[in-house]
Amino acid sequence: MKSKFAKRAHFVKSSETREILKITERPEVISFAGGLPAPELFPLEALKDACNAVLNEEGAASLQYSTTEGYVPLREAINRRMKTVGINAAIGNILITSGSQQAIDLTGRLFIDEGDTIICESPTYLAAINTFKSYNANFVEVAMDEDGMVMEELEEQLQEHPNTKFIYTIPDFQNPTGRTLKLERRKRMIELANQYDVLIVEDNPYGAIRFAGEELPPVKHFDTEGRVIYLSTFSKIFTPGLRLGWICADQAFIDKYVTFKQTADLHTDSFAQRITAKYMELYDMEEHINKIKAVYKERCTAMLACIEEFFPKNLSYSKPEGGLFIWVELPEDVDATHIFTECLKNNVACVPGTPFFPNGTQTNTFRLNFSNMSIEKITEGMKRMGEVLYRELEKEKALL
Amino acid sequence: MKSKFAKRAHFVKSSETREILKITERPEVISFAGGLPAPELFPLEALKDACNAVLNEEGAASLQYSTTEGYVPLREAINRRMKTVGINAAIGNILITSGSQQAIDLTGRLFIDEGDTIICESPTYLAAINTFKSYNANFVEVAMDEDGMVMEELEEQLQEHPNTKFIYTIPDFQNPTGRTLKLERRKRMIELANQYDVLIVEDNPYGAIRFAGEELPPVKHFDTEGRVIYLSTFSKIFTPGLRLGWICADQAFIDKYVTFKQTADLHTDSFAQRITAKYMELYDMEEHINKIKAVYKERCTAMLACIEEFFPKNLSYSKPEGGLFIWVELPEDVDATHIFTECLKNNVACVPGTPFFPNGTQTNTFRLNFSNMSIEKITEGMKRMGEVLYRELEKEKALL
């Protein structure tokens, strides 16, 4: 049989992180590699109530085909939550998606023509890179500092790339760096988008998980021209298994998203939508999120203390005020993939950072996840990792 | 703001049937327009048990991120069911999708390059047309008779279109016609696919809902070279709201499908997968399907009797042995869209058939759904429709 695959099948590759996750699943490995929320915080009993209430009260409608746009009470509940962070959306501005991964994918489908430029933080979210690349986008990376994407460099790149379709940004507790875009830069990003007539895709899965510092309004809050497409999800504040995300955007965009969502999967799981809406009706979701924040804060604080205590001094790292991740930068000549391999021998795992750079340039970084491990495991795992880092960084020095 | 949409956004349109469904939702309308399964047959109490059992026994794992391929016990249960119809698949041959609509979409993504030809039945499933068109495919329609796609014409088209990527077929109780591909033609289709080196995409959502005639093995059963990609779903045998479908194909294809599914939505709802697997463990799904068959048989029989009794004689219609649909062909000069409009005035609805022809050529057909209406409503609705048809067909005659 002659090969039947479409051209695009040859340049989409399996997510490297997902492959790494498989390797790190051995029970003896303490893994900081994944990006999983803490499962012990999933509200199991409350969900049981929600399932029974939906099946008792709403019956067959909860299991029937439903509208592509999504379940109205869920969209309303989303709008009520978004209002508290400064986004005033109408029901027609919301499309429920099958996880925010689908929101990313539909964004690629709706906006990217072959050769379009996407400007993003360097590094950025791996699955967004893979998805946008499957639509043949070119990536232009803009440097970050601890306050997020550097606006001067963003402007330079906008000038240099007039075929830029959108800026892709994760302003809050970014994946993979844990960094947050500071307030003035949010405003400046909007000014630049208006000036250079580009869209902003604000991917905001972590914004609600702020456990330190001051609340910042999302980039969308400053949007005056309907240029910001805001993506978010229930995965980090409720459960990821139900695959519920949403897009908040100008209605003209949402209408087009809907036509693509029809071809993609008709609509998102009706039952998942209804049990989530029911949960928000019966229980206090903010209280639940506060529990998550408290636990993640402890774990993040513990991991940062371990870096101080167990890691060599000649590396830098982010100090996140929320989210799930810490980012570590090794001396320039150190290969993080080698560190990863050595760590694995010591039964501890991280994710090497290279795949998070769309153009694959930087090789001396890795990502640590703190949300999915007890403090005891964090302490033990970081100790193991520290031993590897001391040994390998010494070797590097000896080679110089 | 300059338009930001990708080129593909300009030729994907909202599904006409979905728009029609909105019009027909007025409570006074008896609608045969949709394709909904009978909600009164959804096993609500059993699902409640399944939800509680999953949350009690499997806990947080049922709500966490999970593998792209799908929940292993569900894939095993699918394989056990498929074995009974003559498909021997291994676990690596199965990918769980977010409804079989996603299976169709991923098939487009994986196989269709701009300008590729897809050969299909004339007419065929609307949402597959829209999806494959979004990947820039050309459609070549092959005529059907009451025994499905005509093999002589299929061979002619294969000869004429060497850039054919696949044959898209719905062999059992086809949507929209309700027709079934007869046994010898299934074998012949495989021979032709082998000879002309093309794939077959067998879309089989209705095969399990046979309520009359003899069981036929799926086309996939006769596949000797791994050319048949078999798509199916729990939507018609369980519930559509949970959005659970699957792809059964050669493992080399499944591996590539997985990379695209990662970009599309990471994985299908873990909880929906587990409650469906749990339902199949705790309850007898075949017994449930038998109930569906009994009810649909009654409704189909009633609707066919109504056509005999209330419709003019100068039209033809299919006599399905399963599935959800009957297809009506009016005299050639009658415009079914006009009939639809007139029916709506009489508070009864069908779906005009034109959008089911990928190249939009035939305008004198419509589709009737019998699964979603009581016998009383079927009788009343068909009476109303018969009145419209008699009146409008008389007018046509007067014009000649």
UniProtKB/TrEMBL annotation, chains A, B:
Enzyme Commission code(s) on record: 2.6.1.-
Could you say which residues form the signal peptide? Answer: none
Cofactor(s) listed in the protein's UniProt record: pyridoxal 5'-phosphate
Residue ranges constituting the Aminotransferase class I/classII large domain according to the UniProt record:
44-384
Q: Can you name one GO molecular function term for this protein?
A: pyridoxal phosphate binding
User: Superkingdom of the source?
Assistant: Bacteria
What keywords sit in the KW lines?
Aminotransferase, Pyridoxal phosphate, Transferase
Instruction: Provide the coiled-coil residue spans.
Output: none
Keyword Transferase found: yes
The broad enzyme category this protein falls into is transferase
Family matches, as PANTHER family: AMINOTRANSFERASE, KYNURENINE_ALPHA-AMINOADIPATE AMINOTRANSFERASE, MITOCHONDRIAL
Q: Which family does it belong to?
A: Belongs to the class-I pyridoxal-phosphate-dependent aminotransferase family.
Q: How does it assemble?
A: Homodimer.
- Its protein name is 2-aminoadipate transaminase
Species annotation: Oceanobacillus polygoni
